[in-house]
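tl;dr need the bound structure. longer version: we got a ligand (nicotinamide-adenine-dinucleotide) that a collaborator sent over and nobodys looked at where it sits. i said id run it. heres the input, straight from their email, havent touched it
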Amino acid sequence: MSARPLDGKTALVTGASRGIGRAIAERLARDGATVALGYARDHAAATAVLDRIHSRGGRAFPVHAPLGTHGDATRLWAAYDLARAGHLDDGGVDILVNNAGIGRSAALADLTEQDFDEVFAVNVRAPFFLVQQALPRLRDGGRVINVSSGAARIAMPEIIAYAATKGALDTFTLNLAKELGPRGITANSVHPGIVDTDVNAAWLRDDPAARARAASLAALGRVAEPDDIADVVAFLASHDARWVTGRIIDATGGSGL
Ligand code: NAD
């Protein structure tokens, strides 16, 4: 097999059991990385991703680690170290993709403090401490890629708390880039627009009118597939993106232009 862009690299992708995270994990594995598949609950789905990667000659292993409670980052890296036995010689990581995220569709007037805490715990606190705890194991020249959202840039008050988490994630990215730059580690955020994943299935898949409205928001005139985002992440993970850091990479298909 000819050399692949990520041969010899190790990646952790959170939320890799479905949707965008799954597509990212499969793409990074195709590019040659050994991929740790972070997942919260759905063991069968994580196994299906694993099988698919293996069937294509890729390398991966599952890491069961729910996020969103205190100590989650410590537990994830402990689970990683247990799971990597037999797959990797050491605990080093080249590429950390903070993809796991949850939404809260509630207007300002209706949002509860509990909703607020939950969405910030998964979308902001978990990536923050996952990176912090990874500092000794992130290899020089590595990558941190945060899956944020176009909602951080385009006002959508119906998801105001979710949007605020992604704004916080982007600010975290910016500061990480400065902090980690001397080690050659880049940090970037990716902004998907509306992507056809399970989280949108209820309103997107069975309602052609809703789908057409969603498609019309993007200049490119369609709803994104997970691969549209995974390919951008793969670029950021690659050597070709070594001089890009502290940036938000818009992958909304030109929404809100
Ligand atoms: P999804 O719901 O299909 O997948 C989310 C993944 O995160 C799942 O694998 C899930 O298990 C994991 N996850 C959720 N809560 C978790 C927890 N507490 N602990 C560990 N893992 C957890 O969503 P998706 O559409 O694939 O979204 C992936 C990322 O992309 C999210 O950060 C989301 O905010 C972002 N995003 C999605 C869209 C979209 O339209 N789908 C748009 C912009 C941004």
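gonna send this back to them w/ a short note. Strands lie at 10-13, 34-39, 59-64, 93-98, 138-147, 186-192, 248-251.
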